[in-house]
Write a structure and sequence with these properties.
Layout lengths: L20 H4 L9 E4 L10 E5 L12 E5 L8 H13 L4 E5 L9 H10 L3 E4 L5 H35 L4 H12 L3 E5 L4 E5 L10 E7 L2 E8 L9 H41 L5 H10 L9 E9 L10 H12 L5 E4 L2 E6 L6 H18 L3 E7 L9 H19 L5 E4 L5 H5 L4 H22 L3 H10 L4 H8 L3 H15 L6 H21 L1
Parallel strand pairs: 2-3, 3-4, 4-5, 13-14
Antiparallel strand pairs: 1-5, 6-7, 6-9, 8-9, 10-12, 10-13, 11-12
Helix pairs in contact: 2-3, 4-5, 4-6, 5-6, 6-10, 8-9, 10-16, 12-16, 13-14, 14-15
Amino acid sequence: MASVRAASALPARTPAGVLTVAGALELPALAGACLVAGRAGAGRAIRVANIMEVPDIIRWMRGGEFLLTTAYAVRDDEQALADLVPELAARGLAALGVKVGPYLPRLPARLLRRADELAFPVVELPGYVMLNDILSEVIGTVVNRQALTLERSQALRDRLARAVLDGGSYRELVALLAGETDCPAAIRGADGTILAAVGDVPQHAVAPLTRPITVGHRRSGDVALWTADGQEPDPDQATAVEHVASLAAMLAVQERVLAERERRYRTLLLTELVSHPPRDRAESARRAAALGWDLERPRAAVVVEAASAPEGGGARLTEDRLLAAARTALGADTPAWGTPGGLTLLVAPGGPDRTALRRDCERLRRAVAAACPGRTVAVAAGTVRDDFADLHLSHSEALSALALGRELDGLAGSFVRLHEESGVYRLLDQLPAPELQALVEETLGPLLRYDAGNDGSLVHSLAVYLRHDRNGVEAAEELHIHYNTLRYRLKQIERLTGTPDKDPMRRLQTELAVHANRLLSARAR
């Protein structure tokens, strides 16, 4: 059988830092050796070298060994020597080196055939070589290459770590990875979108080498590398990708920490602005400017409430989802923060009149509804304030408008309500609660007690009747009762409270009391 020098058996791509069978045959101690069978396996990696004097040593093999032997133990049994090949291949050994000499003048043909069939390298060693010389040189080369690989790996990790510590980004990490491996590389988000890339990254080809970016117990993306012509990645490339993945996870954690810190800082400032007048105007303005907010523009406080529909369901409500919808509707420079079940914003209207604020609120409601399907969305706004020190008043008005909208429009309805458009409720809202309660008790007290004791609806019937300008037919239709039933209820109301229709002042007081009662109910909700 023709022998083959190792150089002709080199694999298409030898992993850096790995000693293969073909590479070992280039060592001085193996200068006279020939690869005589199993050349298809010449790229097998050698982990260690060992000498076999008795066949029993095979059971202690763990894989990756370059096994050297004189074949003395099986010198008179060619079949036993040939049977070694499948067992060695099954245990994952790198190659078998057989010394040809006085004990074994030539390698049996059946051994060579089996080696070719299994692509298991068999190396013929000349009789003059010392197995110990081969053993020490192979092991020394493996150890040295491993040390060099570790050194290069640590150097790469140091360069990547410095890039991160110096404020580097995903882009810089990917650039270092692509430069180190000479391959296109990318960092992708959890949804597969490319966050940073260097090189000609294939749009649809599956990356042959990826490593996940894990933050906590959640996968937040991955690092991908595309080798040339889809070749199998080598260990050095895998190590580089792993380094980048671990440092990308560190960057992701840093970004989350910074984002959370900014969110808390923003929320604290906005909460202060809508809770009370600023204790230090200059300090509040400075903090707002640091966040990129212009508090010198006239603004109105706007509150958003996204509630589940009565039948349940609806998209999962998250602050990020709501904030993204708000930025889509009003721009990224609108101060906004999440509240339980919704948002609070400081909106600078697109025009000087009331209709501009309403348009902004309508646009905001549509954006939130689109982002959170299956939920009812209520938007309420206070009046526009020229001085940011008065934003707490606008916020209070917005909350009142929201509560009133829930009372007037129903708990299940979506709506937009401006405090300026609240009519008489805007006037009543200026009165202290005790004054409103006194008005309601004086005018509607008997009706409220009757309803409470008889599960009645006299107050509601009266409110509908007044809203329809005392048109009994229309009121009965809305109440879904017969007209005579409504007349009976009106008689009860007259008996309990007198005849308010005959006195203009009493008529006005009755209507105001009905509205005051609804306002108090809204506040109670």
